[in-house]
Design goal:
The chain is an alpha/beta fold. It folds into two domains: 34 residues, no CATH class; 176 residues, Rossmann fold. It is built from nine helices and seven strands, in the order ααββαααβααβαββαβ. The strands form two sheets. A five-stranded mixed beta sheet has the order 1-2-7-6-3. A two-stranded antiparallel sheet has the order 4-5. The longest helix is centred in the middle third of the chain and has 15 residues. The model has no long low-confidence stretch (mean pLDDT 90). Bound molecules: zinc ion.
Length: 213
């Protein structure tokens, strides 16, 4: 059913590269290679977050917005590939990723309401790309209550909006280093709040990964 829907969508809205408009791609290889990546770290409260590009970049913004406001899950794979490309440029992160047996990727969840509306969680798809590339396991047991989307809340109220929104349904995280995965980091409120609950369940170290900031 989904394949048929995708086929119909392809006929009505043929794919065009977000960069050069070439038909048949979301982001053609040339535009992917030319994306301006600026991997960097930022600290939000106690959490260090690694991100690889600027949300104001036109192609990145188009991909993320289309991802969030449509039901096209394939674009999230592209976001995962962009994150991987940024990681490969950053030796400190590559060193961290070598300790595979202690690492766990945890995607930032959608609330069950949003998950049902959209049909997929973009952060989980991004995490799967990372998992396949770096052979790090994923644990998708972080859950989120229904809250207003952070994008609809003023920057000052985002911390309050997300407070106590997460719960952990997995096993104890003793001795694991956690990589929390999200598509965009803005105020860091979501990643910080999620990291609090994982610390309670014994996570040794936590770092955030986001595609854009
Ligand atoms: Zn292109």
């Amino acid at each position: 059913m989904k394949k048929l829907l995708n086929l119909i969508l392809d006929i009505i809205f043929p794919l065009h590269c977000f960069g050069c408009q070439r038909e048949g791609f979301w982001l053609c290889e040339k535009c992917f290679q030319e994306l301006p990546l600026q991997p960097s770290f930022e600290r939000f409260e106690k959490l260090l977050v690694f991100s690889v590009c600027d949300y104001e970049n036109i192609q990145i913004k188009k991909i993320i917005k289309t991802c969030k406001f449509s039901s096209i899950s394939e674009l999230s794979n592209t976001l995962g590939k962009i994150l991987i490309k940024g990681i490969l440029k950053f030796p400190e992160i590559l060193d961290l990723l070598k300790e595979k047996n202690q690492l766990l990727l945890i995607p930032i969840p959608l609330s069950s309401k949003r998950q049902t509306e959209r049909g997929f969680n973009q952060s989980l798809i991004i995490a799967r790309e990372l998992s396949a590339h770096f052979q790090i396991p994923i644990c998708d047991q972080l859950k989120k209550e229904n809250r207003l989307p952070q994008s609809k809340v003023s920057v000052e109220k985002r911390g309050q909006n997300i407070q106590d929104a997460f719960s952990w349904q997995g096993a104890n995280l003793n001795n694991y280093q956690i990589i929390l995965v999200d598509d965009v980091v803005t105020t860091g409120a979501t990643l910080s709040e999620a990291s609090k609950i994982l610390k309670k369940y014994g996570a040794k170290k936590i770092i955030g990964f986001a595609v854009a900031r």
